[in-house]
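Page 37, continued from 36.
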């Protein structure tokens, strides 16, 4: 207490608190930082109640013109939209007399089918409806999303199958325009099932890689199974023998044959990890192989991409045609 009393008092008028932050007490130092200048007798900072400049928003502006939530929207997404009023913690589980759920963003009461699945909430459904989630992340209006959904009868634009996971179809966009999971809305290509969407991601949206993958699978079909591998001498099997029936010498021979490049994308292995052993899952389902159905060595991304496209050359050709249609549409 003695050390505090030795400090000079705050330079603010009628303030007798010790100046611990420069020549100001902590309260007035924070007030100056926030551009707030008046100090009440109740020790609370008086705030200039300027409303947010966004039309219809009644929150107080904490920046020059915007409230905190709209300022974060503009900084993160480059655009703003109306915000729903804050709700109680149990609001996502509430239902009206018709069994409908209220969207946290548009505040409309909608049937549960209008909300995508989410493990984050007790009812297994997202707090925001599909239309609001799509508009926020991809800049798609509900009308345009409905038009894309009707274009392929609510099915994936690549494989033509319905989404069976219970989730809505994924919005696919051109990552050459917008990196990451969000889109400006102009580069949206279509609606895909989760597997095809993930397949495009692992193939890096590259048409040439998808064509090479289709060719890789087609050539394997023509070539057929390998000869049954002979068991190598003891001590030279290596860890891949029990899983793929590939010995140390056999793996090294495949690496030399492919010049240490991926058999699909033909890129050098720069990840520092060994190339993955790829096998035909129509012969040996799961993660092990008899050795006769080993097709080659691929990088990790192409290995996952082949899995998401279900080892189907036809599906890969359909994926390439989908990309070519989008390229032709944007160039015209």
């Amino acid at each position: 207490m003695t050390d505090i009393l030795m400090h000079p008092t705050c330079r603010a008028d009628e303030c007798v608190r010790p100046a611990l932050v420069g020549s100001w007490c902590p309260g007035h130092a924070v007030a100056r930082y926030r551009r707030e200048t008046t100090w009440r007798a109740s020790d609370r900072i008086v705030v200039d109640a300027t409303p947010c400049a966004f039309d219809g928003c009644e929150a107080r502006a904490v920046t020059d013109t915007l409230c905190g939530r709209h300022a974060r929207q503009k900084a993160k997404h480059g655009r703003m939209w109306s915000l729903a009023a804050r709700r109680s913690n149990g609001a996502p589980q509430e239902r009206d007399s018709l069994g409908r759920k209220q969207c946290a963003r548009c505040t409309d009461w909608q049937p549960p089918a209008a909300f995508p699945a989410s493990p984050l909430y007790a009812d297994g459904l997202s707090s925001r409806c599909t239309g609001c989630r799509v508009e926020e992340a991809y800049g798609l209006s509900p009308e345009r999303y409905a038009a894309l959904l009707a274009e392929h009868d609510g099915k994936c634009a690549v494989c033509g199958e319905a989404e069976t996971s219970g989730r809505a179809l994924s919005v696919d966009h051109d990552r050459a325009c917008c990196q990451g999971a969000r889109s400006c809305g102009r580069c949206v290509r279509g609606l895909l099932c989760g597997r095809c969407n993930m397949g495009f991601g692992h193939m890096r949206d590259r048409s040439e890689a998808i064509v090479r993958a289709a060719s890789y699978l087609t050539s394997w079909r023509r070539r057929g199974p390998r000869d049954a591998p002979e068991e190598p001498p003891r001590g030279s099997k290596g860890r891949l023998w029990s899983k793929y029936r590939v010995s140390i010498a056999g793996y090294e021979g495949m690496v030399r044959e492919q010049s240490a490049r991926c058999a699909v994308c033909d890129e050098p292995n720069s990840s520092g990890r060994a190339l993955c052993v790829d096998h035909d899952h129509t012969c040996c389902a799961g993660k092990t192989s008899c050795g006769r159905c080993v097709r080659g060595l691929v990088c990790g991304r192409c290995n996952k991409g082949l899995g998401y496209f279900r080892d189907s050359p036809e599906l890969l050709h359909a994926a390439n045609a989908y990309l070519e249609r989008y390229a032709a549409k944007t160039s015209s």
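The chain has a mean pLDDT of 85. Flag for discussion at group meeting. The first strand starts at residue 38 and ends at 39.
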